[in-house]
Each structure stands twice: as C-alpha cells, then as structure tokens.
Design brief:
single chain, 6 helices
Length: 239
C-alpha cells in the first residue's frame, strides 16, 4: 500500500485552510518554569512518533530543525509531515491530524490514550484553525491528580463541547486567581469567549519551561491511520 492510497486529494493539491496543532507530555519530576530542558533525543522522538495514535507508520525521517521554525502546510503532502521534540522529560508533537472538523476529537482521543499509558504525566494540547467567519479551537489539559478539561468549538458561537472545570485545573496546577487574571483567564467567562490558549500556557508553564529557543526537533513523513486521513480530508479541504 502506498502512502497515497488512502487520500482522495492528490499530493500536490493546495491546502485551503491553516491551523496550529501541538500536544505536549511532561513527565515527573517536573522541571518547573525555571528548569533546563535536555538536548533533543532523536531515537526517542522516532519511538514516540511510531507509537502515536494518529500514525500508522513512519515512512522516513527528514532530519532535525529548530523547534521554533514554522512548518508550512501548503499542499496535501504536507499533511503527512509531523515534528517531534524530546527534551529530557518533555515530549512535544506537532501533527496536522490533531485538529478535526469532523465528529471526532483527536486531541481528546490522543491525550486520553497517553494519559492511560503515562498516568503520572501532565498533558497539554491545543489546536486551532482559521476559518471564514468563526475560527475553530480545541484544547485538552490533563493533570495526574485527575483534574482534566476538554473544550472544542467555534469562536463566538454558543454550542461548545466542554468536559471538566476550569477551577479544578487551576487548583491542580497551583495557579492563583491573581496569576490567572493577569493573562485574562476568568472562570466566569463562557466558553465562546474564554482565554483557552492562556489557560493552556499557564498549565504548561507551571510544570515546564515554555521557552523553546535553541531546541531541536525531528521531522518525519508518516502514513497516518485511515481514521486520521478521513478526518483530515474533511478538515483541511473545502467541503
């Protein structure tokens, strides 16, 4: 089976949408906001990529790049490129399959699968897509003490999927009301206008440095699973 066979769109077809998609796993002992992250581990990055739930097979490794370097998603073939950084106890993956406008929530699915495998880890995931009229976003935060939150919806719209409580997440990560308010996180705000990105950054910064400058990551071309391809077809191209 070729890596083209699951796709309806040819590899050179332009992608008509743009998004961002990141999932981070932080293992204990948590380095904290002032910790130092280790050098990138290429072998561990490949192992993580091969085991990730949206990936059927790693086809080839395309070297390493600075993790701060933006990877363009311009054509269909770019949707099968993922990036994984492994820096000590912190692993971060960028995978276009993490965002979906179909009925599935891959961020929720992959974060829960990782939480089952690593019950002592913190997991923070965020994915957003620019759409005409109403941008779409989805976030998932997992704390090992059991606090979780998952949200997904279109900016400004009323109908959001929400599981969990913001206050439980703030308490689990030791984030004071003053620190939350300083970045615009207000638990009383409705989901459609809540600062979800700010909450995700607060949670991640509570357990790990968030400055990625100077760090490297591995780039892989992969064959995604059939479920991931079907969802990406619906998500990245006009319907």
């Amino acid at each position: 089976m070729s890596d083209e066979s699951l796709w309806d769109h040819p590899s050179d077809e332009p992608v008509e949408r743009h998004g961002e998609f990141t999932l981070t796993v932080v293992h204990p002992p948590f380095p904290g906001p002032d910790g130092v992250l280790g050098a990138h581990d290429e072998a561990r990055a490949r192992t993580f990529a091969e085991a990730f739930g949206t990936v059927h097979q790693v086809l080839d490794q395309q070297g390493t790049i600075p993790v701060t370097e933006f990877i363009d998603v311009d054509a269909r073939a770019d949707l099968d490129v993922i990036r994984v950084g492994c820096w000590g106890g912190v692993t971060e993956i960028n995978d276009p399959a993490l965002i979906s406008l179909s009925e599935r929530f891959p961020i929720q699915e992959q974060a829960e699968a990782l939480a089952d495998r690593h019950p002592d880890a913190v997991i923070v995931a965020a994915a957003e897509m620019d759409l005409p009229g109403a941008d779409y976003g989805t976030w998932k935060i997992v704390h090992p003490d059991g606090a979780r939150i998952f949200v997904a919806g279109f900016s400004g719209e009323e109908d959001w999927d929400v599981e969990g409580e913001v206050t439980a997440v703030l308490d689990a990560f030791g984030i004071t009301p003053e620190r939350a308010a300083a970045v615009g996180v207000d638990p009383a705000q409705p989901p459609r206008s809540f600062a979800w990105d700010a909450l995700a950054r607060l949670a991640l910064k509570a357990v790990s440095p968030t400055d990625r400058r100077g760090l490297m990551a591995s780039v892989f071309r992969v064959r995604h699973t059939e479920d991931a391809v079907v969802a990406m077809e619906d998500t990245w191209f006009e319907r």
